[in-house]
Design goal:
The protein is mainly beta and 185 residues long. It is built from two helices and 15 strands. It has a domain of 90 residues. The strands form two sheets. Strands 3, 4, 5, 6, 7, 8, 9, 10, 11, 12, 13, 14 and 15 form a 13-stranded parallel beta sheet that branches.
């Protein structure tokens, strides 16, 4: 009638404490912890509040090459576009324009990395990168601009953030009469 299990004391009468299916999370199985002193297992079901909390992982959204959007696109964290967008793109996050992407839009984001084609103005609060396969026709405004060899850029760029002292000095000085020189390095 009684069976002795190797590694268990015969005086031990406790069975593992299991939860009912209603108490278990439908997403994750109920974990068990082992008590090494008496070789028994007990459930260590997480509290319902811990289950309901989403992980603090940055989400990355992807629009593949067969997606076409006309209108306003807004997103929170990261967006990778390999399709077509016509309209506006707004975010404080990061936008990556894939090699197959064709964008005709005004872009205002935190950072932009362009591998494909963008026709429209781009304003990024932090950084814009034009990779070798990029083609941008429009004006660029950002703190940092990186253009790889082979990238096509047609437009004007405003790079950096003017300091308040420099802005005040420009406002108080009369306009110079000589033409400024263009320096290429």
């Amino acid at each position: 009638m009684f069976k002795k299990v190797i590694g268990q004391n015969s005086s031990e009468s406790q069975k593992p404490s299991l939860t009912t299916p209603e108490e278990r999370s439908p997403i994750a199985p109920t974990p068990f912890t082992k008590d090494s002193a008496n070789h028994s297992y007990s459930s260590a079901a997480p509290a319902p509040a811990a289950i309901a909390k989403p992980p603090s992982v940055t989400t990355r959204n992807v629009l593949s090459s067969d997606v076409e959007i006309k209108g306003i696109v807004k997103f929170q964290h990261d967006l990778i576009v390999d399709g077509k967008i016509e309209g506006e793109i707004h975010s404080a996050g990061n936008l990556t324009v894939g090699e197959n992407a064709r964008i005709k839009a005004e872009i205002k984001t935190g950072t932009v990395v362009v591998y494909g084609k963008v026709h429209g103005n781009i304003a990024a609060t932090d950084r814009i990168e034009l990779k070798a396969s990029a083609e941008v026709v429009g004006d660029i405004k950002t703190k940092t601009l990186v253009i790889e060899a082979g990238a096509i850029f047609v437009g004007k760029s405003t790079v950096g953030t003017p300091t308040q002292a420099a802005s005040a000095a420009v406002d108080t000085k009369p306009a110079p009469t000589a033409q400024p020189a263009l320096v290429m390095s």
